[in-house]
Amino acid sequence: MTLNIGVIGTGAIGREHIRRCSQVLQNARVVALNDIDRRQCEEVAAALQLQAEIYDSAHDLINAPDVQAVLVTSWGPTHEEFVLAAIKAGKAVFCEKPLAVTAQGCMNIVEAEMAGGKKRVQVGFMRPYDSGYRALKQVLESGEIGTPLMLHCAHRNPEVGDSYTTDMAITDTLIHELDVLRWLLNDDYVSAQVIWPRKTRHASSHLKDPQIVLLETAQGTRIDVEIFVNCQYGYDIQCEVVGESGIARLPEPMAVQTRSNAALSVAILTDWKKRFIDAYDVELQAFINNVLADELTGPSAWDGYAAAVAADACVAAQKSGDIVQITMPPRPAFYQ
Length: 336
Ligand code: NAD
Ligand code: ISE
Description:
By secondary structure, the protein is an alpha/beta fold. The protein has two domains: 3-127 and 278-299, Rossmann fold (3-Layer(aba) Sandwich); 128-271 and 307-335, Dihydrodipicolinate Reductase, domain 2, CATH 3.30.360.10. The protein has helices at residues 12-24, 38-47, 58-63, 79-88, 103-116, 131-142, 168-185, 272-275, 277-292, 301-320; strands spanning 3-8, 28-34, 53-55, 69-72, 92-96, 121-124, 148-156, 189-195, 211-217, 222-228, 236-243, 247-249, 257-260, 263-266, 324-325. The strands form three sheets. It has a seven-stranded mixed β-sheet with strand order 12-11-7-10-9-8-15, with helices on one face. A six-stranded parallel β-sheet has the order 3-2-1-4-5-6, sandwiched between helices. The chain has a two-stranded antiparallel sheet with strand order 13-14. α5 (103-116) runs antiparallel to α10 (301-320). It is globular. The two termini are 29 Å apart. The relative contact order is 0.16. Bound molecules: nicotinamide-adenine-dinucleotide and (2R,3S,4s,5R,6S)-2,3,4,5,6-pentahydroxycyclohexanone. Nicotinamide-adenine-dinucleotide binds at residues 8-14, 34-37, 40, 58, 73-76, 78, 96-97, 124, 126, 172, 272. Nicotinamide-adenine-dinucleotide binds next to α1.
């Protein structure tokens, strides 16, 4: 069986996902493309030699009879509209993060999905599919380091463009930690605070960078996440869990160690696309397999909502400087 996929948004990650669906993964083909910039669709189709129809309207793509599943990889503010339309059309939809730009937008999707009576949404949180995070979770669940007490994490990008704003450090960047740490600890957040170290001279004048987000979970675990999006030296994701009887660290990506010029070195990646390349493959293959098996199991609309509730609190904490409480309603049985 082959799943016919329509893709909305042919920018950076859209192209990556189109390439993997057409050249790397099994049982999928991209049959339809849409972007507000039609030329981009034409370029992608030509570069990857796709037999795909190009639609000028995302809604026409969603409703096209040969499109069985939709990939939403357009800008974040468009996600809610397209995911709701896919649910209405009765189609499975893989939506890149964020599921919607506000918690209320995510809740609208949760309610529409529950009203339809069937899980149709997978959110593009790829880290739970990363072999390093999975190995870390296994260690925690084995009990080897005891109960997790503290986490020290970092999300560093070499640089960002001028359009990147201080709140995007939460909604675009930290959102990955908000999802994966909840999954790792099997816990929810109860409060957030943001503190500001000295600002780097490499950040644009309107951007506060770096920032440190302090989170507390329902079970009392304390988490600090450094977000530093102009760190210059690489794309670097760190996660250290301090338990009652030991410490567990997220493995570094595999890299050859060299000894030359009187130095012992290991290269650090610079591009987010490469850091999680295998995880992106695994998450999308899981989506394809699960749609074909008619049972979605990946990061759900509820996970998208939970991350958005925490993100809203972190943005409020950025603005107020206060410790902001995070209140999650109980998880509906539909998402157990
Ligand atoms: P991008 O700017 O490179 O691409 C976005 C594309 O969406 C552009 O081509 C734009 O023309 C198109 N678009 C905008 N509005 C549209 C509309 N109304 N209809 C159709 N197309 C529209 O951005 P990107 O880096 O590819 O990011 C896209 C999404 O993917 C964002 O939500 C981002 O947060 C997410 N993302 C996720 C990861 C990850 O690690 N999971 C990595 C990068 C980006
Ligand atoms: C980008 O949008 C992503 O999602 C990357 O995974 C992330 O690391 C980066 O910081 C974001 O800008």
